Amino acid sequence: MNMGSYKCCTPDTKEFRSIVSLSSLLKLVAEENRLKLLCILSEGEHCVCEIMEHVDMSQSLISHHLADLKSAGLVIDEKRGLRVYYQLTEGGKKILALLKEM
Description:
Elements: H1 14-30, H2 32-41, E1 46-47, H3 48-52, H4 59-71, E2 75-80, E3 83-88, H5 90-101
Antiparallel strand pairs: 1-3, 2-3
């Protein structure tokens, strides 16, 4: 079966770009550590030092994953003094709710 014969699977269509974008998002949240971070942030905002108390990850790894989630629009951050606090966006809440239903 030639996937190119389906309109939504051809690279020059809006539907194809949506599929690629959705696939990237699913890959992002499918990673176990990022999913843990989303679950922690579903309870409210946290800084990296607080998150470290709940997961077995280094500060730099947590920050890296949070940066990826921020780039995807799933979390936002706010700097307060020396700390940066992260929380879920509405999109992040929706994605997490959807995943929890499965």
